[in-house]
Amino acid sequence: RKEVEQDPGPFNVPEGATVAFNCTYSNSASQSFFWYRQDCRKEPKLLMSVYSSGNEDGRFTAQLNRASQYISLLIRDSKLSDSATYLCAFDTNAGKSTFGDGTTLTVKP
Amino acid sequence: DTAVSQTPKYLVTQMGNDKSIKCEQNLGHDTMYWYKQDSKKFLKIMFSYNNKELIINETVPNRFSPKSPDKAHLNLHINSLELGDSAVYFCASSQGARGYEQYFGPGTRLTVT
Q1: Closest Cα to residue A88, out of A33, A41, A28, A10?
Q2: Is B39 within 8 Å of chain A by CB?
Q3: 3-state secondary structure string across chain B
Q4: Which 3 state secondary structure label does DSSP give A58?
Q5: d(Cα A2, Cα A100) in Å, to the nearest integer?
Q6: Does B106 sit within 8 Å of A42, measured CB to CB?
Q7: Is the pLDDT of residue B1 over 70?
Q8: Cα-trace Rg, chain B
Q9: How high is the pLDDT of residue B56?
């Protein structure tokens, strides 16, 4: 089983839609969780950390489900500018960072 | 005021050559990383340094040798380049070795011909 699995998509949604991505991880020792955004031919940039109680930043909501070992990202009211690849990432106690392979989102007018 | 910078941005070279990529961060972070992102966009950690000490060394051919002269710099030297080394190499840094978000450099696009 891969350490982290993401649905690669692509997700094609109209502007204004709500879209959700999941990311499952196999290492129960995972401690810290993140969502990154990567635009085409650019570097990954932190979108948000994922906290145990869930957290929200504007139109973005992140959730952690430790029992089922997955994190999720919900984007409300999608904008054209949200089109990108979304990478989940987690850290173990050993300090190793593992990234998912990314989910591609295209928001269409 | 680039936080994490890499040079060069593009590198085209022939098989068998030796090349280096340099990375610098001005964020005052303790931890730096090298990642490889291949043509399928998979981002894989190669090395991690904390306070100039190597802490993560994934299964990487020993043709790849990182070097951290100080906390702000992490360089990557690659010997005897192979076609399969073609990828984008990202440097990143974080405040500490565990549980901190990472800041990535713009990447070095390496093409081996």
Answers
A1: A33
A2: no
A3: CCCEEEECCEEEECCCCCEEEEEEECCCCCEEEEEEECCCCCEEEEEEEECCEEEEECCCCCCEEEEEEECCEEEEEECCCCHHHCEEEEEEEECCCCCCCCEECCCEEEEEC
A4: coil
A5: 9
A6: yes
A7: no
A8: 13
A9: 85
**B15 C-beta neighbours (distance < 10 Å), count:** 11
- CA dist B24 and B74 (Å) reads 7
pLDDT in tens, A73-92: 999 999 999 999 999 999 87
**Cβ neighbour number for residue A42 with a 10 Å cutoff:** 13
Q: Would you say residue B26 has pLDDT above 90?
A: yes
CB contact under 8 A, B41 and A49: no
The candidate with the shortest Cα–Cα distance to B94, out of A52, A40, A34, is A34
Please say whether the beta carbons of B34 and B76 come within 8 A: yes
Burial class of residue A58 in the structure, from the number of CB atoms within 10 Å of its CB (0-12 exposed, 13-18 middle, 19+ buried): exposed
* CA dist., res. A105 & res. B89, Å (int): 23
Distance CA A74, CA A85 (A): 14
More confident residue, A60 or A92: A60
Interface contact A95-B97, CB threshold 8 A? yes
In angstroms, the CA B52 to CA A23 distance is 32
Counting residues of chain A whose pLDDT is more than 70, the rounded percentage is 96
CB-CB neighbours of B31 under 10 Å: 25
